[in-house]
Design a protein that fits this description.
With 452 residues, this protein is an alpha+beta fold. The protein contains nine helices and 19 strands. The model is unreliable at 1-46 and 59-63 (pLDDT under 50). It catalyses: N-terminal glycyl-[protein] + tetradecanoyl-CoA = N-tetradecanoylglycyl-[protein] + CoA + H(+).
Length: 452
């Protein structure tokens, strides 16, 4: 049985067999009436969104409906059949002078703080809060363990706002007990490029999850985003909220099957032995594509051109410039790894692949304490077949001692998943836009956006 993962007070479910992150920008659902819902409502990607609406309303009791999200400018289930509603912003921007200037009220024992993630002391506090309270499976076997370096990378993109890194402390002890962040991002929807917020790392200490902090934290980060004259957001959740623009499947590929089976992450297939399983997932010792090498800073212009052209194929995708590519794609040890294919004749960069590192703590195991997972990020194949490019990505991930390689079925990823022996996870990752309506639900292959 595959356990569900919960994000703190929120209900954001995970597929343990892939140990995949189904986080936001808004990092999960904010359902302030329940802390345990079934995430596996959608069984097929092709289910029409009106069927999705009916299923969730039948599944959830009246007391479990999304009272918080029903007050927000997001697509509502009741509007699904209303073709007269325009595509685009749901609510117009408010004059900045009318945006609430003071923070929302917290319970008396707590206070807002702005977290300086450049401070080693503060970054360590945030790391400790997340590593002890963030995402854990129902059976207490695994918990996400974002590194401090990953957090600094994720929260310091070009143009970031320090005021969007928000903490909640106990007034008396100054202990950090909750956290939420936002970063700005340029996202193209159809032909319109919009500056949006991506909200992430919403975490409330385990002992405070009855305090109803999550909704007020969402409102507070939204207020701070509005103060910067930004009115849209993109986010994901592992549960169905009003209303997904698409639903994606996570797939996983074993790199160290013996360890994965030993720690209970996966199990032997029927009629399979350990030796047969290890042979099934064995990879070559080194990449097979001529000119395949680690990306360097000098490759940023070439990779930017490849990525910008590729992402134009999708309905919703980021609009990256060279500064973005330098930040998000250039390799950073222990955080993100990227590789290019350089033509041996022309020395032109023709292809690239990338993945980021999100390990998990293994709880209570006598021999293993860390599960090392790679997550497919952005990949562009123009001259090298995509299957060959991603097989080389698996090879270098294995060389770097990753235990499992995860990928969503977004963009053109479906073209390599089955061929390269990825297995589907049980959960879904649902994508949402805040204060922006898309008339029809997208196929996952029409999405060009990967959120950390």
């Amino acid at each position: 049985m595959v356990p569900n993962f919960m994000i703190c007070y929120l209900v954001s479910c995970f597929d343990c067999s892939a140990l995949v992150q189904l986080t936001m920008a808004d990092n999960g659902s904010v359902n302030d009436d329940t802390t345990n819902q079934n995430s596996e409502i959608i069984k097929t990607e092709s289910a029409p969104i009106d069927e999705l609406s009916r299923e969730i309303q039948e599944t959830l009791s009246v007391s479990q409906r999304h009272k918080f999200w029903e007050t927000q400018p997001v697509g509502q289930f009741k509007d699904l059949r209303d073709t007269s509603l325009p595509e685009g912003p749901i609510e117009p921007p408010t004059p900045l002078s009318e945006v609430k200037q003071e923070p929302y009220n917290l319970p008396n024992l707590y206070e807002w703080v702005t977290c300086d993630m450049n401070s080693e002391e503060t970054c360590l506090e945030v790391y400790n809060l997340l590593s002890n309270n963030y995402v854990e499976d129902d059976e207490n076997m695994f918990r996400f363990n974002y590194s401090k370096e990953f957090l600094q990378w994720a929260l310091h993109p070009p143009g970031y706002f320090k005021t969007w890194h928000i903490g909640v402390r106990v007034k008396s002890s100054k202990k950090l007990v909750a956290f939420i962040t936002g970063i700005p991002a340029k996202i193209r929807v159809q032909n319109e490029i919009i500056t949006m917020a991506e909200v992430n790392f919403l975490c409330v200490h385990k002992k405070l999850r009855s305090k109803r902090l999550a909704p007020v934290m969402i409102k507070e980060v939204t207020r701070r985003v509005h103060l910067e004259n930004i009115w849209q957001a993109a986010y994901t959740a592992g549960v169905v909220l009003p209303t997904p623009i698409t639903s994606c499947q996570y797939w996983h590929r074993s790199l160290n099957p013996k360890k994965l089976i030993d720690v209970g992450f996966s199990r032997l297939g029927p009629r399979m032995t350990m030796s047969r399983t290890m042979k099934l997932y064995k990879l070559p010792d080194s990449p097979l594509t001529p000119g395949f090498r680690k990306m360097e800073l000098r490759d940023v212009p070439s990779v930017t051109r490849l990525l910008k052209t590729y992402l134009l194929e999708f309905v919703v995708a980021p609009d990256f410039d060279e500064m973005d590519v330098e930040h998000w794609i250039v390799p950073k040890e222990g955080v993100v790894d990227s590789f290019v294919v350089e033509s041996q004749e022309t020395h032109e960069v023709t292809d690239f692949c990338s993945f980021y590192s999100l390990p998990s703590s293994i709880l209570g195991h006598p021999n293993h304490s860390n599960l090392k997972a790679a997550y497919s990020y952005y990949n562009v194949a123009t001259k090298t077949p995509l299957i060959q490019l991603m097989n080389d990505a698996l090879i270098v991930a294995k060389q770097m001692d990753f235990d499992v390689f995860n990928a969503l079925d977004v963009m053109h990823n479906e073209g390599f998943l089955k061929e390269l022996k990825f297995g589907p996870g049980d959960g879904k990752l649902h994508y949402y836009l805040y204060n922006y309506r898309i008339k029809s639900m997208l196929r996952s292959s029409e999405l060009g956006l990967v959120l950390l």
